[in-house]
Amino acid sequence: MAKQGTLMVVSGPAGVGKGTIVKLACEKAEGKIHLSISATTRAPRPIDSEGVTYYFKTKEEFQSMIANNEILEWAEYVGNYYGTPRKPVEDALSRGLDVILEIEVQGAMQIKKNFPGAVLTFVAPPSYEELESRLRGRGTETEEQILSRLETAKGELALMEEYDYVVVNDRIEQASDDLITILRAEQLKQKA
Ligand code: 5GP
User: Fold this and answer.
1) Residue 34 domain-assigned (yes or no)
2) Range of the domain at 117
3) I want to staple 25 with a disulfide (CB 3.0 to 4.6 A). Which of 6, 33, 48, 179 is the partner?
4) What is the predicted pLDDT for the residue at 139?
5) Is any atom of ligand 1 closer than 6 Å to the C-beta of 108?
6) Does 2 map to a domain?
7) What does the pLDDT read at residue 192?
8) Residue 83 Cβ contacting ligand 1 at under 6 Å
9) Which atom of ligand 1 is nearest the CA belonging to 19?
């Protein structure tokens, strides 16, 4: 019988580079990791593409997905809804693939509660100052949005201790290898 894959949550403040390291880890794992694509009500950014970075939904569509139990976890973040579509995650896990959910902390806490076998990894910046400069350097948000995300980041950093692992994103090569190592360790664990 195929072993179930590991459900891994990856969280971290905006601008920490978690998207980049998750993408690199998926490339290195050569098809053994399924990256969940979330649904969101936020407006697409220029780099976004429907069904690739997110499924873009209206508030009404999102609410009906919740009502129909199609969402594994969801949260409101900086004024928009974000949620994980349930079916693709369950399908991938039962095919033995590891699944990464790149989600914020409220959603991560829901997964921790409802999926005891999930592994929670927090991607931390080398320092708060470094985070601020990366977020500004990204150039995708207005000053107001940047300040709001930095404020949210402070709350997120405070929740770091709820996670099983902390990966410091100092060098992306090392940080992406760390994610793969954590998944490998999970596979080797003796399940009770
Ligand atoms: P962004 O708007 O920058 O793409 O994402 C904002 C935050 O929402 C990020 O921290 C991202 O990880 C989180 N996020 C993305 N998808 C989901 C999801 O499905 N559920 C939850 N809870 N958070 C998500």
Assistant:
1) yes
2) 7-187
3) 179
4) 81
5) no
6) no
7) 53
8) yes
9) 12
Separation of CA 40 and ligand 1 centre (Å): 8
CB 103 near ligand 1, within 6 Å: yes
> What's the gap in Å between 15 CA and the centre of ligand 1?
12
2-24: b or e for each residue (b if 16 or more CB lie within 10 Å)?
eebbbbbbbbbbbbbbbeebbeb
Mean pLDDT per 10-residue interval, the chain, length 192 residues: 86 90 96 97 96 97 98 95 98 97 96 96 92 85 88 88 95 97 93 62
The residue contributing the CA closest to ligand 1 atom 22 is: 107
Say what the pTM is. 0.92
| Nearest residue by C-alpha to atom 20 in ligand 1 | 83
